[in-house]
Amino acid sequence: MTSGLLLRLKEQKPYASPSERNIIQFVQADPQRVLSMSIRELAEQTYTSPSTVVRFCRKLGCDGYKGFQRELVYEFAAMQERSDIALREIDPADSVGEIVDKVAQGDVLSIEATSRLLDMATLSTCADLIGSCRVVDVFGIGASLLVAHDLEMKLTRVDKECRVYDDWHNQWLCARNMHADDLAIVVSYSGFTDEMIECARCAHRRGAPVIAITRMGNDAGLARHVDYVLGIAASEPLVRSGAMGSRMSQLFVVDALYAVYVARNYEQCADIITRNYTVKEDPEKRRGAAWLERKSEDA
Question: Where are the beta strands (DSSP E) in 201-268?
Answer without folding.
Answer: 210-215, 228-232
